[in-house]
Design goal:
This protein is mainly β. A hairpin with a 2-residue loop joins β24 and β25.
Length: 776
């Protein structure tokens, strides 16, 4: 008969897959059935890193040991190069616990067939300095890919980066998991040329978002990134973030500008960038909150005909297409009930919410907060309000376990607080007085599509004409047909550029004239995949109180038209002057005129630069006419090879207008910060030699806040000084230190200083030292 054999009666050789029964005679005959799971990995039986030493060799004899990998022992793979490393370390410091850091990097490259090269990579590093990677799971390693390259092009499988930069609208930069292929340009004869063709398909690892962060006075971080719906527990995909400070792209790294913890989605700035309430922080990144099936297809191709004297095609044509869509099993993946699906069908493009309350039995030992329903009269209306159950309720009264969702400042009725009950408790404050509501947000399946067509014509050497058109279709709820009328959008841009021949005076080339004109238009519902405008577009055009969503119009649902004309004179060394005038119109809501002038003197002597930017706006939401002027000037040494590099800068802004100040509910001083008059003086110098680099700078910023936020005659003077130094012995020692101080001469009435957690401006003193010593 059949019986279950206890584990103590048999032994398993997991490497060879052999089961041995204890106490069974070798000649015994019987049948057994085993259930097991296995990893479908075909590994070589033996991998030898160093050749064996003959044991018969005399003791003490020496023999050269050379590395021999498995690839080198396999016929046809002798040309492959292997490299890799495993690192372990401990990171500690004042005010923090010690943490263990680790890293793994394996690389394989070489020729596997005549004209065919392979490159494979596997890496996982979780150090703060090189933060590519957050987990050891294979599907979450930073880079797991195999790439093949040959004369026709390249093929990549695994972790890929989809990048399209050919046009104005079809911009794309995503980290995906799938396959991509790129062909090399080729001549087709008779002056026809096929450009690069790129195509691919993959599963989407995350969602793209741009977030504006309100800087706090004297706080370097951490600053937390959030999801589109205000989710605070997200995972940022490693290496996808771009951090901008005052419109300038920062560099990641403990010895650079900032570090990021991808698991907690928190950014901390280093001492190189002292943070104050006047700093502007923007971050674009990809993130994921949970796994679901979303795929992306992309393609980009271009071709040209003819050839100008400078070697460019006389006519170019290009097309790009991108499609992103959730899977057909979306409802099953998220466990939608019939009621959930019905609610999603009726919601259209609106947010789908369902009750977060679940009826439970009262449990005095529960590890979560339990709630009761209590009726309250608010503004004449009787509302059912959830209140914490502090003791066992009377018999027959319902008890609930409630999930709350953060909807944003002023959009909910409950606030989050701590309690001795079971940790977090949500308290009813009234409609519009909280950030949370007792609801659960249901996701809806999304599909986005974009096609972009572009042409370039060069009828003569000095003239270039461009035209581009994009069409988008975005369905934010594939389950519902409601609100589908606003799915489609159109956009176009036409551009012309002309450059004169070199102007000569007494046989001397003095430069050339340039003229550029552009018109761009977007329909109300046009949408791109990535940001296609300046990171501070709303600030440049004084769109105060508005935060732009990635890919959408400045005001969603409102058409957008921008025109500009630029004229300039430039020499080969970038010395020159330019004047640019532009107009932006957002439906009937906003109209702005912007003038930008610049003068540059770039020589081996002093390098001088001056720029003025003035925008005049008429905003129906602000209710008036406003003018904002920005000035920037810089003087520096022209010889970039000199050891000593001094510089001086002056920056100033002035604002005037009759419109109301539009503020962000999360930052009451945001309107004042964006529109505050200030004067900033900055000077410093850098000195470097073969092994030593030293730099120092000082800055004085005076802010004038008259008639801002009800403060009369107030102001603020900020002093900032920084010094840093580094000593390097190549291959052995690298050590550096930096220090910074920020002092505030607060002339604002006590309790009104913007940006400080306590309501009063605060000073900051920062110091940091790092060092690396290699021995052996």
């Amino acid at each position: 008969g059949e019986r279950v054999v206890p584990a103590s009666s048999w032994d398993t050789d997991y490497r060879r897959g052999v089961v041995t029964f204890e106490g069974v005679h070798p000649d015994s005959a019987f049948t057994f059935v085993a259930a097991y799971r296995y990893l479908p990995i075909d590994l070589a039986g033996d991998v030898t890193l160093w050749p064996r030493v003959d044991p018969d060799e005399e003791e003490g004899s020496r023999r050269r040991v050379t590395g021999v990998g498995a690839a080198a022992q396999t016929p046809g793979l002798q040309g492959l190069q292997r490299s890799g490393s495993i690192t372990r370390g401990v990171h500690t410091g004042s005010g923090r616990d010690a943490t263990i850091e680790s890293g793994l990097r394996l690389e394989l490259s070489g020729e596997v067939a005549p004209g065919v090269n392979v490159r494979a990579s596997l890496s996982d590093e979780d150090t703060p300095i090189l933060p590519e990677g957050t987990t050891r799971r294979l599907d979450q390693f930073d880079r797991v890919f195999i790439g093949l390259s040959a004369r026709p092009g390249t093929l990549t499988l695994g972790d890929i980066t989809a990048t399209i930069e050919s046009g104005r609208f079809a911009r794309l930069s995503r980290k995906l998991q799938g396959v991509s292929a790129t062909t090399n340009p080729m001549d087709l004869g008779r002056s026809y040329r096929l450009g690069t063709v790129t195509a691919g398909g993959a599963s989407v690892r995350g969602r793209f978002r741009i977030q504006r962060i309100t800087a706090l006075e004297g706080v370097q971080g951490p600053y937390r990134l959030q999801g589109d719906g205000g989710e605070v527990f997200i995972l940022v995909l490693p290496g996808t973030e771009n951090v901008y400070l005052d419109g300038i792209l920062m560099t990641r790294g403990a010895s650079n500008d900032y570090v990021i913890d991808y698991t907690t989605a928190e950014i901390t700035f280093t001492n190189r960038r002292i943070i104050g309430a006047d700093r502007r922080i923007r971050v674009e990144f990809e993130y994921t909150t949970q796994q679901f099936s979303r795929t992306m297809l992309f393609a980009d191709a271009s071709a040209g005909a003819g050839r100008t004297d400078s070697g460019f095609p006389r006519f170019e044509f290009g097309v790009s297409a991108i499609r992103e869509s959730d899977g057909a099993q979306f409802s099953e993946e998220f466990g939608f009930s019939e009621a959930d699906s019905a609610a999603a069908r009726m919601a259209g493009d609106d947010q789908v919410l369902r009750s977060g309350a679940t009826l439970v039995e009262y449990d005095a030992q529960a590890l979560y907060t339990q709630y009761l329903i209590e009726k309250r009269v608010v503004d004449g209306d009787t509302l059912n309000v959830f209140v914490p159950a502090t003791s066992e309720p009377e018999v027959g009264r319902d008890v609930y376990r409630v999930s709350f969702t953060r909807l944003g400042p002023g959009k909910g009725s409950y606030t989050r607080s701590g309690s001795a009950l079971n940790g977090v408790v949500y308290t009813f404050e009234g409609p519009g007085r909280g950030n949370y509501d007792p609801v659960r947000r249901l996701p809806t399946p999304l599909r986005r599509q974009l096609v972009d067509v572009r042409t370039v014509l060069r009828p003569m050497r000095s003239l270039e004409l461009k035209a581009e058109m994009g069409a988008s279709r975005v369905d934010r709820n594939l389950i519902s047909t409601i609100d589908d009328a606003d799915n489609d959008g159109r956009a176009f841009v036409v551009e012309g550029a002309w450059a004169s021949p070199s102007l000569r005076v007494s046989d001397t080339d003095v430069g050339r004239l340039r003229l550029n004109g552009e018109m761009r238009s977007r329909s109300p519902d046009f949408e791109t995949f990535d940001r296609v405008r300046s990171i501070e577009f709303e600030r440049e055009w004084n769109l105060r109180g508005r935060t732009l969503e990635a890919g959408r119009n400045a005001i969603p649902g409102v058409s957008e038209t921008e025109t500009s004309l630029e004229a300039g004179f430039v020499r080969d060394d970038s010395t020159g002057l330019s004047l640019r005038i532009g107009r932006l119109r957002l439906g009937d809501v906003y109209e702005g005129d912007r003038t930008v002038g610049a003068v540059r003197w770039m020589t081996l002597g002093p390098r001088l630069e001056y720029r003025i930017d003035r925008v005049v706006t008429r905003d129906s939401l602000a209710g008036g006419r406003e003018s904002w002027s920005r000035h920037f000037s810089r003087a520096a040494r022209g010889d970039a090879a000199a050891s000593l590099q001094p510089f001086a800068e002056i920056e100033a802004e002035t604002f005037s207008g009759t419109g109301a100040v539009i503020v962000d509910p999360e930052d009451p001083f945001s309107g004042a910060t964006e529109s505050r008059d200030f004067l900033e003086l900055r000077a410093g110098a850098d000195w470097s030699s073969e092994r030593v680099r030293v730099g120092a700078s000082a800055e004085r910023r005076e802010e004038f806040t008259d008639d801002i936020a009800g403060l009369e005659g107030g102001g603020l003077v900020i002093w900032t000084s920084q010094i840093q130094g580094e000593y390097v012995e190549p291959g052995r020692l690298r050590t550096g230190a930096s220090a910074g101080i920020r002092l505030l001469d607060d002339r604002i009435p006590s309790g009104d200083a913007p940006g400080s957690a306590s309501g009063r401006a605060s000073d900051a003193l920062l110091f940091d030292w790092t060092g690396t010593l290699r021995t052996g």
